[in-house]
Inverse folding.
């Protein structure tokens, strides 16, 4: 039988370590590499010019590499669901291969395509290579719910076998065996579109700081490793002002588009470490950024609402302000805080900013100063940031805005001091906000505090040539810390957990009052306490005990108990209906049964269900997961006693409190 | 059998167990009328009670127990035979109890079931607490309390309200709406009132007179206010006088951080008259020696919490000092009181602070603070319990932390943000404090590896001294 393969590129824009592409080549008579792109959709989507440019460059590089193997990239215009039936018939396709996409949107799209392929009698082969690990396996090992603290995640990862070894790049020989003639009209039909064709204006577009494509990625990888050798010899390097600029060894955008395989990076780092240190196994911290990426992918893979506050089971509902004007000032770098504005300018111009810079602007927009929803910030990053993965972007924003992944310390980055620590001379600011370049170092982070004479001498009067600061940071951070505490203390789930800097207070009568809970505004598990007079009767109990409370002698033990009993804090604690689930703890194995999703690396054609079905499956999976979480509580109580591992007790407790749970 | 259910709980069951069983009942009842499965009701109810008994080793207690008994025992048997319990005969106490656990919307649905349930819906006990959520679609993502509901509450239940709070978004309209409601609360007697700005402080945007007249309606009509939270509002001295004139005997808690229209004299008047005051939150500019003396007068109950926000309006602001003798008087009068201080100052403004001993227990530095000041903290804050340093310069805080560990023997919680500490000094600090450090939140970047410890070693070393597993706080590298 003739095998006509199509490999569908989405992410994973590379020829090295591409297992799905290898499957396409395997025993095939013909192979075509396809990228599906909808130019009309492109213009409308919320993706900025830098990201499109990066993508197009990556496609060109791919096409270029394929040319060297006497093949080409077929860029097909349209929507996948429209394109594939046409291609299947036209090319007499028998096998469709692509990389597994762990994100909910991708899973749904792929489900529909797989179903469609089935109808056309086309075999589909899906392989996992965008993440190091099989995410479903991590979730399974955490009792069928994604780990919500990084520590817990690391613990699980350390119990997993090493990620699969990367595959070599496809070879001329492999390609030759499934060669077909490229049509003369190939460029006419399947060329890579230009930015203009996608509706972007390119007259004054500066050259790209980050050049897309696999070749560039591999080039950077070797420089990156050289630098690591150097860094390893110097030991601890503090973040300095050089770190703020785009580095020729930076890799994050390449991982995002899959121009570089994360496994290739993983094994290169590992081998380098073992060569340098002569220790057999490197610490997990070596793979920091790769693991964070994995962490957020795991948290998001079964949560289609991961990118929003409403309906997102791990996200705390916070009464953010809607303020389009303030949001625009932030997004366009007009906040009046040079540090913030420089970062946003760099982001817009180049498409990348350092991770501490991301922390600074994300904190400023959300819990630090403007009290604007993280979702708005995430969307701006989605437009501008080259390495914005849906999962990593959403997850990081939730983290930095304290919306998920519980932290007890609401530390706000100062929009003046934080930058100054990193770059005391302010050269970074001068580069991205030239109007401020003549300010003396002393005032460059806070020009509004410069005497008028200094402002005039610098040819930049604040309020005229550069905006005044849009908020009083001291005032707004004070207010916001207060509000954040309010939000967390209202969540019965967190009550009794100490938050740092949460001031003790007298127990008020009947606090908090019953809300109008026709809405769920106060959070996923809004508490309602007994409002009766007998509630507290003016008893003096420092609530939300900071460790100051004398009765919290055994704080740790106390907390563990509270959490496991699911009735945190005071006697009037929330009667959470789910807390009464006291039936015999179901065995861990029965939990496992709740996740029947097929392993992504199996041949899925007969097993996968299509779009609608997939959604239903997911929903029921979510319900099961929720159920599993309840029973997990019980299971873990039991296991807690048995298990010897010291580290786990605390971690698990953290874990339980890491995300609010929806009842 | 029925007797057996209740006879085994002579000793008072734990509150938690009680709550659990009650909420279970609630859950079942709601399930019942939402699912509308008539036939299975009696059986379910029976099983539910048995499970309670089995699992909790006890059942509901007190009043509730007796009524339950009265209700369930005969009814259940009858019900089993008659295939249907007469829910309309559920006594009001039980209904009330159930209703207390239901969200308002569910109560509203339930009230449509029958006349009895409708009466229960309007029982005063259910309307003591209410939180008005006032949001505009343009400025908030959250829904607001329905205006019709607000109208109904004011019409039918305003005399029942006792514990009221307003959550107001950043819009002026919402703050105005809150004032409108406040000014209609003429025939009620509130015990607690909270005006909470959930985003920007929108009450500040209202004309002062408008806000004051609404607030004083409550002060005048509610003669027994015990708790008042009015942070970030334009409250002023005359309105505090009205508060004092009407509520001086009952006021226990007053939070009024960032109320720019109040003067030191205004707050002094409150302290002079309200002898039951146990918690007070205000800005530093309102703090005076006289105020502390007034709070430590013999007539005054022990103060429990005093929270002071020290915020500078513009850089270089001069701050007054408080005499050591005034603080001494406070400590003498209320030996256990918590003094919580939030500092949001520029580094050069710390001059007047931490020169003399100060009984601060919770200390929060919201922006960068110098090594010098932290050094003084070790010398002057013997009662320190919790310390949070959000930022410091680039020089490590080693000696300062060690000194704090030595001198502040009560210290049990610490958080460090943008600072630096060498790993050795940090380990030493933890060793000195030992397991009294209940909370230790240190950003990973804070710890600077040195010749003795690497970052990978430190969590073991610290865990060892704490007697529990510890890791530094991490932020995602992204």
């Amino acid at each position: 039988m003739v095998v006509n393969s199509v490999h569908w590129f989405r992410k994973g824009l590379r020829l090295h370590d591409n297992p799905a592409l290898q499957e396409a080549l395997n025993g095939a008579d013909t192979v075509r590499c396809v990228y599906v792109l909808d130019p009309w959709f492109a213009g409308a989507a919320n993706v900025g010019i830098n990201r499109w440019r990066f993508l197009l460059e990556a496609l060109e590089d791919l096409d270029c590499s394929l040319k060297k193997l006497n093949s080409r990239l077929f860029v097909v215009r349209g929507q996948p669901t429209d394109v594939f039936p046409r291609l299947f018939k036209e090319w007499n396709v028998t096998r469709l291969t692509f990389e597994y996409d762990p994100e909910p949107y991708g899973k749904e799209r792929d489900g529909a395509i797989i179903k469609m392929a089935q109808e056309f009698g086309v075999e589909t082969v899906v392989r996992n290579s965008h993440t190091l690990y099989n995410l479903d396996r991590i979730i399974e090992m955490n009792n069928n719910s994604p780990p919500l603290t990084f520590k817990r995640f690391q613990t699980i990862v350390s119990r997993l076998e090493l990620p699969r070894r990367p595959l070599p790049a496809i070879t001329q020989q492999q390609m030759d065996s499934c060669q077909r003639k490229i049509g003369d009209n190939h460029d006419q039909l399947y060329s890579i579109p230009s930015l203009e064709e996608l509706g972007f204006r390119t007259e004054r577009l500066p050259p790209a700081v980050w050049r897309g494509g696999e070749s560039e990625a591999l080039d950077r990888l070797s420089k990156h490793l050289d630098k690591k050798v150097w860094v390893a010899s110097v030991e601890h390097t503090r973040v300095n002002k050089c770190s703020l600029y785009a580095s020729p060894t930076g890799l994050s955008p390449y991982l995002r588009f899959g121009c570089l395989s994360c496994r290739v990076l993983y094994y290169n780092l590992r081998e380098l470490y073992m060569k340098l240190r002569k220790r057999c196994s490197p610490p997990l911290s070596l793979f920091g950024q790769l693991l964070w990426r994995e962490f957020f992918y795991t948290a998001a893979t079964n949560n289609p609402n991961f990118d929003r506050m409403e309906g997102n089971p791990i996200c705390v509902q916070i009464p953010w302000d809607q303020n389009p004007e303030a949001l625009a000032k932030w997004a366009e770098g007009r906040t009046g805080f040079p540090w913030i504005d420089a970062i946003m300018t760099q982001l817009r111009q180049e498409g990348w900013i350092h991770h501490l810079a991301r922390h600074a602007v994300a904190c400023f927009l959300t819990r630090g100063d403007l009290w604007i929803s993280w979702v708005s910030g995430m969307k701006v990053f989605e437009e501008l940031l080259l390495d914005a993965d849906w999962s990593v972007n959403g997850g990081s924003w939730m983290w930095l805005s304290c919306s998920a992944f519980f932290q007890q310390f609401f530390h706000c980055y100062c929009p003046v001091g934080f930058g100054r620590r990193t770059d005391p001379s302010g050269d970074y600011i001068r580069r991205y906000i030239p109007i401020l370049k003549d300010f003396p170092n002393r005032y460059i982070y806070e020009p509004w505090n410069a005497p008028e004479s200094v402002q005039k001498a610098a040819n930049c009067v604040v309020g005229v040539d550069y905006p005044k600061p849009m908020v009083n940071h001291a005032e707004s951070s004070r207010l916001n810390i207060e509000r954040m505490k309010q939000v967390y203390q209202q969540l019965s789930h967190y009550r009794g957990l100490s938050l740092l800097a949460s001031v003790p207070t007298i127990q008020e009568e009947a606090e908090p009052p019953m809300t109008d809970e026709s809405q769920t505004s106060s959070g996923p598990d809004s508490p309602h306490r007994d409002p009766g007079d007998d509630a507290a009767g003016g008893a003096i109990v420092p609530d939300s005990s900071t460790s100051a409370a004398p009765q919290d002698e055994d704080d740790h033990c106390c907390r563990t108990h509270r959490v496991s009993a699911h009735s945190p804090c005071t006697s009037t604690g929330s009667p959470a209906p789910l807390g009464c689930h006291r039936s015999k703890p179901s065995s861990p194995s029965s939990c496992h049964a709740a996740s029947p999703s097929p392993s992504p690396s199996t041949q899925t054609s007969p097993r996968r269900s299509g779009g609608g079905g997939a959604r239903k499956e997911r929903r029921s999976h979510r319900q099961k997961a929720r159920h599993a979480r309840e029973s997990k509580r019980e299971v873990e109580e039991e296991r807690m006693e048995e298990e010897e591992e010291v580290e786990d007790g605390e971690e698990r407790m953290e874990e339980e409190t890491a995300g609010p749970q929806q009842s | 059998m029925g007797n057996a259910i209740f006879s085994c709980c002579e000793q008072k069951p734990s509150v938690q167990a009680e709550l659990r069983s009650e909420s279970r009942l609630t859950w079942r009842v709601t399930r019942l009328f939402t699912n509308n499965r008539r036939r299975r009701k009696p059986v379910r109810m029976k099983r539910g009670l048995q499970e309670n008994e089995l699992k909790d080793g006890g059942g509901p207690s007190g009043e509730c127990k007796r009524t339950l008994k009265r209700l369930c025992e005969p009814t259940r048997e009858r019900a089993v035979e008659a295939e249907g319990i007469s829910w309309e005969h559920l006594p009001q106490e039980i209904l009330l109890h159930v209703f207390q656990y239901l969200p308002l919307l569910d109560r509203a649905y339930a009230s449509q079931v029958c006349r009895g349930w409708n009466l229960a819906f309007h029982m005063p006990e259910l309307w003591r607490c209410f939180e008005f959520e006032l949001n505009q679609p343009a400025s908030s993502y959250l829904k607001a309390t329905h205006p019709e509901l607000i109208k109904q509450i004011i019409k039918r239940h305003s005399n029942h309200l006792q514990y009221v709070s307003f959550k107001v978004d950043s819009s002026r309209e919402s703050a105005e709406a809150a004032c409108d409601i406040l000014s209609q609360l003429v025939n009620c007697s509130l015990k607690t009132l909270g005006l909470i700005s959930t985003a920007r402080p929108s009450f500040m945007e209202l004309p002062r007179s408008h806000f004051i007249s609404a607030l004083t309606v409550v002060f005048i009509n509610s003669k027994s206010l015990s708790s008042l939270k009015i942070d970030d509002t334009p409250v002023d001295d005359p309105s505090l006088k009205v508060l004092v004139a009407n509520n001086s005997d009952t006021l226990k808690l007053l939070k009024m951080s960032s109320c720019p229209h109040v003067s030191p004299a205004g707050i002094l008047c409150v302290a002079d008259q309200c002898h039951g005051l146990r918690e007070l939150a205000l800005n530093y500019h309102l703090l005076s020696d006289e105020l502390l003396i007034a709070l430590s007068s013999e007539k005054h109950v022990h103060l429990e919490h005093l929270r002071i926000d020290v915020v500078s309006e513009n850089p270089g602001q001069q701050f007054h000092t408080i005499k050591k003798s005034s603080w001494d008087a406070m400590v003498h009068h209320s030996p256990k009181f918590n003094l919580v201080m939030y500092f949001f100052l520029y580094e050069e403004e710390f001059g007047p602070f931490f020169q003399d001993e100060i009984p601060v227990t919770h200390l929060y530095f919201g922006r960068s603070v110098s090594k010098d000041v932290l050094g003084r903290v070790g010398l002057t804050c013997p009662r320190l319990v919790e310390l949070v340093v959000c930022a410091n310069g680039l020089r490590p805080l080693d000696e300062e932390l060690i000194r704090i560990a030595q001198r502040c023997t009560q210290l049990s919680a610490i958080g460090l943000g943008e600072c630096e500490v060498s790993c050795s000094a940090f380990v030493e600090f933890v060793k000195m404090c030992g397991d009294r450090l209940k909370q230790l939140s240190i950003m990973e970047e804070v710890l600077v590896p040195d010749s003795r410890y690497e970052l990978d070693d430190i969590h073991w070393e610290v865990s060892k001294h704490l007697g529990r597993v510890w890791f530094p706080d991490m932020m995602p590298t992204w």
About this structure: Chain B is about 45% helix and 15% strand. Residues 363-379+387-477 of chain B form one domain. Chain B touches chain A through 107 residues (CB under 8 Å).
